[in-house]
């Protein structure tokens, strides 16, 4: 647009948050002194004033840089002096104006303003007329969307306008948009461009208003729905009261909804619970299905979905806790500390599943508890002994009467966090029945690639077990299913030595039992030699469980005597021990006094630790029969047959009659016939004993041996070497013969146990016989 010829000096009035357009009549309050002075100056002259908007409303005395460049030259129609020293002015916009410069006369501000024509001089063409009509229609739609605004009042002026610039200005004045957006319209001088800008703004605002209406409509519908549901629930309460449901199922539903909001579970769980609550409300109270639904919802809401405890990775503290709770087990502690260090260094990686394997009473379960304490995790124990139904692990489907979740989900419910330490106790005692294999169900639980979405049959929702730290315990590695064992890292716990047992008893078990029986340390004292006699004569175990019971028995007798005022304190010595506990229950096995013929001491592993076995062989004239007595198992009998095959094949070397198996009967007996015995490790012992009996050669009385025999005389590896060596030492053995393949296992045996013993590794029977025969004896005469 071209500039008008006039460039005028007129009073300037700065506006805050308001933009005035040409062809626009408006009323607004005036309060600033300079603004009032500008009104007075304009009213005294030609009544024209330049209205320009401030860039920032906060400025009380704006300069030219604080004002927009474009404003509107307006005509003052009326100045109203209102009560309370208030002034209002009514103006009518005439032309756009550009502020060239600004000056002050001490009272008010004046602006040198260049005026611009409002519109094209010529009438619009057909295309422009169509654009103008489209703009009018858009504004009419806008006015219907905002009935409370001034847009409706301006609609007739828009429709009567014949010029595009005038329509654009009138519409801009009626739009409820920010003043800075209106200022951009004001600064657009080309009427056609101004009209296009206004139409774009209307289209945008229409979309916003329509979306707003949709949101309000949905909100209103939601409110109406809630009101309707509230009314129906109130009616339902009355009906339920009449039917005898005093508590009201809706009260339960409300309580469940409140718990659901507090729990804030994953979306899938939330939707399932909300759906089940709606289903519960529709089920008659007298129906058994109603209780099934309630129990299911309660179970889901009792599970931890997002709750977790903060892990601790203080290795020094963990080491202190392990040392405080357990004596010895240095290699086990070292492995656990390594495990914790890896967890600290790579917390996001899938945790290794540790399996602690060892005899009963050596501290497997308590080690797991100490690990949980050291890591700051919740501890939950799940016993698997005797479990032979898959549903024990996965739960029953809730369609069955009396259905309940499996042990895994119950353990998580008990823990109350998604990252506890869960101990799977006695994993080697899982059973199998026609109801399924629970070990197979545990495969998913212990597999880090699958357990992030474990599905219990009762819960029927994916449950994340990936943050659970699993530990397992077992007594016998052979009884753990192989696929399950493949997912674990095994840590072997050996038997305690007598010294370790004595330290544990004096430092831990005695204090624990004194506290349990309410005794002070001064009221009961057990002398170290008396404790040693208790360990040797009244217990026979790898761990300390029976030892703790014996100490508890002594504490009970002490409490009885003190309460009965028979004494003030009790001191237990070797002299009064038999009076308190009775006769010695276990007599330690001892080696023979001198070398024997046909009698060899073997070493065996049992569930309670190691023991020695005296293998006795008699050779008698007969028809070549083999007698095996002493409650031997199938594997042990096969070892005896393998030994005879080896002797027959090497009869010439051993100077044994070639037809001894036809002319002589051989009787092999292992004492303590009431005790079942099995396993291949007595093979070399039976072979040595038969050779001794057949040849008449005597075997050293201070030698004990263990190892599996083959029909070619090779000595194969065995298990439980530490327990067997400990048993040999207790029996007074001086030399232990063991398979060469077990040399690596001997390195794991503590020096305390090996002290005073000579160890001979045997690759075949020749090595065994070299050290087993008594001095001057030979198997070939």
Describe this structure as you would to a colleague:
The structure is a single chain. The chain has 781 residues and is α/β, with parallel strands linked by helices. Helix content is 43%, strand content 20%. It contains 27 helices and 26 strands. The strands form 7 sheets. A 7-stranded mixed sheet has the order 19-20-18-17-22-25-26. Helix 7 packs antiparallel against helix 8 and helix 10 runs antiparallel to helix 12 (364-375). The longest helix is centred in the first third of the chain and has 53 residues, at 191-243. The termini are far apart. 35% of the residues are buried. The model has no long low-confidence stretch (mean pLDDT 83).
Q: Which key phrases capture this entry?
A:
single chain; 781 residues; alpha/beta; 7-stranded mixed beta sheet; 5-stranded mixed β-barrel; 27 helices; elongated
Summed up:
With 781 residues, this protein is an alpha/beta fold. It is 43% helix and 20% strand. A seven-stranded mixed beta sheet has the order 19-20-18-17-22-25-26. It has a five-stranded mixed β-barrel with strand order 1-3-4-5-6.
């Amino acid at each position: 647009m071209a500039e008008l010829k006039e460039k005028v000096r007129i009073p300037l009035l700065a506006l805050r948050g308001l933009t005035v357009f040409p062809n626009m009549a408006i009323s607004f309050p005036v309060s600033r002194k300079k603004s009032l002075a500008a009104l007075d100056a304009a009213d005294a002259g030609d009544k024209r004033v330049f209205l320009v908007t401030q860039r920032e409303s906060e400025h009380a005395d704006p300069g030219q840089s604080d004002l927009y460049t474009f404003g509107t030259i307006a005509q003052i129609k009326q100045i109203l002096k209102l009560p309370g020293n208030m002034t209002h002015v009514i103006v009518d916009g005439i032309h756009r104006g550009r502020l060239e410069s600004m000056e002050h006369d001490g009272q008010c501000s004046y602006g040198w303003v260049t005026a611009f024509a409002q519109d094209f001089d010529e009438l619009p063409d057909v295309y422009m007329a169509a654009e103008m009509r489209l703009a009018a229609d858009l504004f009419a739609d806008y006015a219907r969307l905002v009935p409370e605004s001034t847009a409706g009042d301006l609609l007739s002026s828009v429709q009567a306008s014949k010029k595009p610039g005038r329509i654009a200005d009138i519409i801009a004045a009626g739009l409820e948009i920010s003043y800075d957006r209106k200022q951009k319209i004001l600064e657009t001088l080309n009427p056609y461009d101004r009209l296009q800008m206004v139409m774009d703004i209307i289209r945008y605002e229409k979309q916003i208003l329509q979306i707003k209406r949709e949101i309000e409509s949905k909100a209103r519908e939601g409110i109406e729905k809630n009101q309707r549901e509230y009314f129906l629930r109130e009616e339902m309460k009355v009906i339920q009261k009449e039917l005898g449901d005093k508590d009201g199922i809706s009260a339960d539903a409300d309580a469940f909804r409140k718990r659901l909001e507090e729990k804030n579970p994953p979306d899938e769980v939330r939707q399932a619970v909300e759906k089940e609550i709606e289903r519960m409300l529709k089920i008659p109270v007298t129906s058994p299905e109603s209780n099934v639904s309630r129990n299911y919802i309660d179970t889901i809401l009792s599970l931890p979905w997002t709750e977790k405890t903060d892990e601790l990775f203080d290795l020094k503290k963990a080491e202190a806790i392990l040392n405080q709770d357990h004596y010895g087990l240095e290699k086990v502690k070292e492995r656990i500390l390594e495990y914790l260090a890896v967890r600290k260094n790579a917390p996001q990686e899938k945790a290794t599943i540790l399996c602690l394997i060892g005899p009963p009473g050596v501290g497997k379960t308590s080690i797991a508890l100490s690990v949980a304490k050291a890591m700051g995790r919740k501890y939950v124990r799940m016993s698997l002994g005797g479990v032979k139904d898959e549903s024990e692990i996965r739960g029953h489907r809730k369609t069955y009467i009396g259905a309940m979740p499996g042990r895994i989900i119950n353990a998580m419910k008990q823990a109350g966090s998604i990252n506890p330490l869960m101990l799977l106790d006695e994993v080697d005692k899982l059973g199998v029945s026609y109801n399924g294999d629970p070990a197979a169900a545990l495969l998913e639980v212990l597999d880090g690639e699958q357990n992030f979405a474990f599905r219990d049959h009762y819960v029927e929702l994916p449950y994340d077990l990936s943050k659970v730290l699993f530990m397992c315990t077992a007594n016998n590695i052979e009884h753990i299913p192989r696929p399950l064992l493949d997912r674990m890292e095994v840590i072997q716990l050996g038997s305690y030595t007598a010294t370790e047992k004595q330290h544990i008893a004096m430092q831990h078990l005695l204090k624990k039992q004194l506290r349990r029986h309410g005794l002070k340390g001064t009221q009961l004292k057990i002398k170290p030699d008396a404790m040693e006699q208790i360990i040797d004569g009244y217990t026979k175990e790898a761990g300390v469980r029976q030892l703790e019971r014996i100490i508890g028995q002594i504490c009970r007798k002490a409490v009885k005597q003190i309460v009965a005022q028979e004494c003030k304190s009790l001191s237990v010595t070797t002299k009064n021990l038999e009076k308190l506990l009775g006769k010695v229950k276990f007599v330690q096995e001892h080696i023979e006094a001198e070398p024997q013929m046909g009698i060899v001491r073997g070493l065996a592993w049992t569930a309670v630790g190691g023991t020695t076995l005296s293998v006795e062989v008699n050779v008698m004239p007969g028809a070549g029969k083999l007698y095996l007595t002493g409650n031997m198992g199938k594997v042990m009998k096969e070892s005896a047959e393998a030994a005879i095959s080896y002797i027959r094949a090497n009869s010439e070397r051993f100077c044994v009659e070639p037809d001894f198996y036809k002319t002589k009967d051989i009787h092999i007996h292992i004492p303590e016939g009431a005790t079942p015995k099995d396993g291949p490790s007595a093979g070399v012992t039976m072979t040595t004993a038969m050779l001794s009996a057949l040849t008449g050669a005597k075997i050293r009385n201070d030698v004990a041996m263990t190892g599996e025999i083959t029909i070619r005389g090779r000595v194969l590896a065995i298990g439980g070497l530490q327990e067997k060596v400990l048993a040999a030492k207790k029996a007074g053995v001086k030399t232990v013969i063991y398979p060469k393949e077990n040399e690596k296992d001997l390195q794991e045996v503590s020096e305390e146990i090996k002290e005073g013993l000579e160890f001979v590794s045997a690759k075949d029977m020749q090595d065994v016989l070299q050290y087993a025969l008594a001095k001057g004896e030979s198997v070939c005469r």
